[in-house]
Design goal:
Blueprint lengths: L4 E7 L3 H12 L7 E7 L6 H9 L4 E7 L6 H11 L4 E4 L5 E2 L3 H11 L4 E10 L9 E2 L8 E2 L2 H9 L12 E4 H11 L5 H4 L4 H11 L4 E13 L4 H4 L2 H18 L6 H20 L8
Parallel strand pairs: 1-2, 1-4, 2-3, 6-10
Antiparallel strand pairs: 4-9, 5-10, 6-7, 6-9, 8-10
């Protein structure tokens, strides 16, 4: 089954983190060789040396795209997504890493649950906060294993003030579904896309709006690293939120989703606040 899966890794200037990620992939419990496709955005550190080191591993079958000039994060994703040709794909960021059972668990679930996507719970590693004794927040999302539905997504963003795991690092996709979902949200003319904010929500939840099965497992099989150079940390929280709201609206409008009274009320309130804020501070304008 492992030959049906490709791990896609966009990377730039994170050789130390990439080394940890590749080490975690080499320790996967899934049988046989694991396909890895890496796209490097013209790193100037020792990224290529790290890749060459892991090319010697009998567990990893590594193919590398070396960009001769820097490209944006979202273009780095696209490099990989366009090239993936196995039945399943797992996109994971270079500063995250997997638990040893990640690929085995997720491939088993995507078959067992007959899903288009399987999304895992995750642990968070708070790299920039050494004051915390326990840097790992296990099972970050307090939610039981289940098939996700449209109301789950809408309510989490509009009513609960929380988010379901949107990062591709926590998902295993049927490759054809991943490609379709990515293309739906890909728009380099939009500021959110340029920052690679919101595309992840669409990639994970687009199939749900098409009435396809997406399964969430409460078990944490991926570790996320939170640090000062992360997109989510260095981006203004309001811009971050409104980019995700924009992506949610894109899905609601595309599939003519009928919201209930509370959902409509909260959506109108959030859009009203957004319009006021972007007048006061134009940098909040994300195109809603």
């Amino acid at each position: 089954m492992n030959n049906d899966v490709t791990v896609l890794i966009p990377t730039f200037q994170r050789a130390r983190y990439l080394d940890q990620l590749l080490k975690s992939i080499s320790k996967q419990t899934i049988d046989g060789e694991i396909n890895c496709l890496i796209s490097d955005s013209n790193s100037k550190d020792n990224t290529l040396e790290v890749i060459k080191k892991w090319e010697k591993s009998k567990k990893l079958n590594i193919d590398t795209i070396i960009n001769k000039s820097p490209i944006s994060a979202i273009e780095n994703w696209k490099n990989l997504i366009d090239r993936s040709d196995t039945k399943y794909s797992k996109l994971i960021f270079d500063d995250d890493w997997m638990e040893p059972n990640c690929l085995e668990k997720m491939t088993d679930l995507i078959i067992e649950k007959k899903s288009e996507i399987v999304i895992t719970n995750f642990n968070v590693f708070l790299e920039d906060d050494p004051s915390k004794e326990d840097k790992y927040l296990n099972n970050y999302l307090d939610m039981e294993s289940k098939y996700l539905n449209v109301d789950d997504i809408v309510n989490f963003y509009l009513l609960n003030g929380k988010t379901i795991n949107v990062s591709p690092s926590g998902a295993l996709y049927k490759t054809e579904v991943m490609k379709e979902s990515f293309e739906f949200g890909f728009d380099l003319e939009n500021m959110c896309t340029k920052k690679a904010i919101g595309n992840d929500l669409i990639m994970n939840f687009y199939p749900i709006f098409k009435n396809k099965k997406v399964y969430f497992t409460s078990e944490s099989t991926v570790n996320y690293r939170a640090h000062s150079s992360s997109i989510t940390i260095r981006t203004d929280n309001r811009v971050l939120y409104y980019c995700y709201l924009r992506s949610l609206l894109q899905l609601i409008n595309e599939f003519s989703i009928q919201l209930n009274f509370e959902q409509k009320k909260e959506l109108k309130r959030k859009i009203f606040i957004y319009k006021i804020r972007k007048k006061i501070k134009p940098s909040y304008d994300v195109g809603i």
